Structures are given as C-alpha cells and as structure tokens.
Amino acid sequence: MKKHRKTINEEQALEVTSDVEIPDESTQETSSSSQQLEQTQSPISLSALEEDLLTALLGQELYGLQLCQAIQDSSEGRQVLKIGSLYPSLHRLERKGFVTSRMEDKGSGSRGGNRRKYYRITGVGAKALTHKQDMRNRLADWQPVLT
Question: What is the pTM of this model?
C-alpha cells in the first residue's frame, strides 16, 4: 500500500498565496485572522476533516464534489465525505480565513446545470496546516521522560 502525504514548507505557503485574489470586503477579516494566528500561542483549531480539506486544496482550486472525490480516492474508498459535512466545514474554514471561494463564471462551461463554487487555500490556511502538521510530527516523535 502506498502512503501519500502532502506537507508544505514556508516557500510553498508563500507560493499558495501568490495567486490568491481576496475581495476588498474580506481583506480585513483575512488580515485579522493572520494576525490572530501569529499572535496567539494557543493551538490552532482544525478538525480532522478541515485538515483533510486544506491538504486537498494545497496548490489547486477545487469545487465541492471534487473535494469529496479527492478524499474518497486518497483513502481508497474507506472515507466517504457526505455533502452535509462538507459544506459546513468549508464555511467554517472560510470564516477562519483559511480558504477563499469564488463562483464559476456563467459562460465558462458547456455542461449546463448550476454554477460551481471553487475553493482555494489562503496563506493563513497554509500556515495553519503547517502548524498542525508540525504539532502532529512532534507528537509522533515525543518520548516520555524517564525519572
């Protein structure tokens, strides 16, 4: 069985933010999230699902059903993400400033149906994910002190 693990470093976090456009009205919220992340020493609150979603969004923009498919495929079918869990998690990530979203342009698809909402990780989201991964790595390496 192959294990796929996506980790990021500071350069990749900066790369992720380079093509992110943040609307003017959310700039204040995102910058305050960034300041909050840098100023607090408290743990970053990310559920396992939120961590999976951020990891799936590293370096790419995906819509909801693609995120469900990514999680199902990468878990070899053992984890199936339901829509009822997906969108509340994505909305929480947006409120935290960890992802941004955009609606698909009307004329961009010949497939018909509803417009798609695409999600992209922000620099703050990439930094939060890095912090969480670092904490997990330290936890895996932790050894009790024998006295």
Answer: 0.69
Q: Which residues contact 80 (CB under 8 A, 6 or more apart)?
A: 68, 71, 72
pLDDT 10s digits, 69-125: 999 999 999 999 999 999 999 999 999 999 999 998 765 555 667 889 999 999 999
Give CA separation, 147 vs 51, 144, in Å. 36, 9
Please, what CATH class does the domain formed by 47-105+113-135 belong to?
Answer: mainly alpha
What is the distance between the alpha carbons of residues 86 and 140, in angstroms, rounded to a whole number? 28
Instruction: Give the start-to-end residue ranges of the domains of the chain.
Output: 47-105+113-135
